[in-house]
Design a protein that fits this description.
Length: 174
């Protein structure tokens, strides 16, 4: 139930603040909605930060919903010792892991896009900790640069098993 409420809030915010038919606007005025969740870690083996980013963009009537993961973590076994300020000193050849996964399409449709948002939340609900930002700034209005639009079109053009997961999640719920 809470996943549906959160997905509805995200969908309503996209509709009110960003809207569809962005491709009809000049390139420098095209926007997407981006929000990030902090994700839990496996604290027995790692420390740092993990995030889930969701990007929602509607070039015309169809709305695309993309997601990716980012991390800035390190394995606890890679620590040699800590400084007096509790900063980790790594063993030789070890360091933080910084990475960003490619965007993955969870939906690109005129009416089912909100189910894609709900599916992402359902898939990650056991790992979601917080929405990044504060009550007034929990999402970003992101300019759709030429590079970001190219990534968007490439990801939404290629279909994979993620679309099947969205449909199954919608049918069986979280």
């Amino acid at each position: 139930m809470l996943t549906n409420i959160l997905a509805s809030i995200i969908g309503d915010t996209f509709t009110r603040k960003i809207g569809r038919n962005q491709a009809d606007k000049p390139l420098d005025q095209r926007q997407a909605l981006k929000l990030s969740f902090s994700l839990s870690l496996d604290y027995n083996i790692e420390d740092g930060y993990r995030w889930l980013d969701i990007l929602i963009y509607a070039p015309k009537n169809y709305v695309g919903v993309l997601a990716r993961e980012r991390q800035h973590t390190f394995f606890l076994d890679d620590i040699d010792h800590y400084t007096d300020q509790e900063e980790p000193i790594f063993k030789p050849g070890k360091s933080h892991i910084e990475s960003t996964s490619p965007w993955k399409s969870f939906g690109f449709h005129d009416s089912c896009w909100l189910q894609a948002v709900n599916s992402i939340i359902c898939n990650y609900e056991h790992r979601l900790l917080t929405i990044n930002g504060d009550t007034n700034n929990w999402f970003i209005t992101l300019p759709m640069t030429t590079d970001l639009q190219s990534q968007f079109y490439e990801v939404t053009r290629t279909r994979d098993s993620t679309m099947v997961k969205v449909i199954v999640s919608a049918l069986i719920g979280c």
